């Protein structure tokens, strides 16, 4: 199976094949509008502006599975993002990234790149402590742990990296730039 066999649905309920993005560098992100990591939208948009003309596509998939931090409709989410962060990258329909109703795209992404940790620093320690109370075995399963988990896909369609929300966005940008 390939990433290009996957589909996503736009907020307007149109199915889009990821084959349309073949030959591009993809950054696929599950997002939220009311999360401590929501300001990452600003850095994502800056990265999109910097690299879009060179072949970067950011695919934003809002998700409400983590503490109900994306409660609005697809229209309200889009309005929030454009008004507060001037986002221009494609935003898809709010979807699940874990569980019985998870997008098949996320099943594929998690198979390709499992959880490898939160990195170092205070945010990483905080996330680890919080997740231990929710799932004592969280380190040993590939599930998406929180909002703003990012998967980086190269121009050949290979999932090359997974960045947890605690990773410094400068590291994410450096990895993207390396593929551009």
Automatic annotation (TrEMBL):
The active site is at 35. One of its GO terms (molecular function) is peroxidase activity. It comes from the Bacteria. Residues 1-180 form the Thioredoxin domain. The keyword Oxidoreductase applies. GO terms for biological process: cellular response to oxidative stress. Keywords: Oxidoreductase, Peroxidase. PROSITE patterns: GLUTATHIONE_PEROXID_1 (PS00460), GLUTATHIONE_PEROXID_3 (PS51355), THIOREDOXIN_2 (PS51352). The keyword Ribosomal protein does not apply. PANTHER family: GLUTATHIONE PEROXIDASE. Belongs to the glutathione peroxidase family. This is Glutathione peroxidase.
């Amino acid at each position: 199976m390939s990433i290009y066999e996957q589909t996503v649905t736009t907020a307007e309920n149109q199915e889009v094949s990821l084959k349309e993005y073949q030959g591009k560098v993809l950054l696929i992100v599950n997002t939220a509008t009311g999360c401590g990591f929501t300001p990452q939208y600003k850095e994502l948009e800056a990265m999109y502006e910097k690299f879009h003309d060179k072949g970067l596509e950011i695919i934003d998939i809002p998700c409400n599975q983590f503490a109900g931090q994306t409660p609005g409709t697809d229209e309200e989410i889009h309005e929030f993002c454009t008004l507060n962060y001037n986002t221009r990258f494609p935003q898809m329909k709010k979807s699940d990234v874990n569980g019985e109703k998870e997008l098949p795209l996320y099943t594929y992404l998690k198979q390709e790149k499992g959880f490898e940790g939160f990195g170092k620093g205070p945010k990483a320690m905080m996330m680890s402590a919080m997740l231990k109370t929710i799932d004592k075995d969280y380190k040993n399963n590939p599930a998406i742990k929180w909002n703003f988990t990012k998967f980086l896909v190269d121009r050949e369609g290979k999932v090359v990296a997974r960045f947890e929300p605690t990773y410094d966005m400068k590291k994410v940008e450096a990895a993207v730039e390396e593929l551009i």
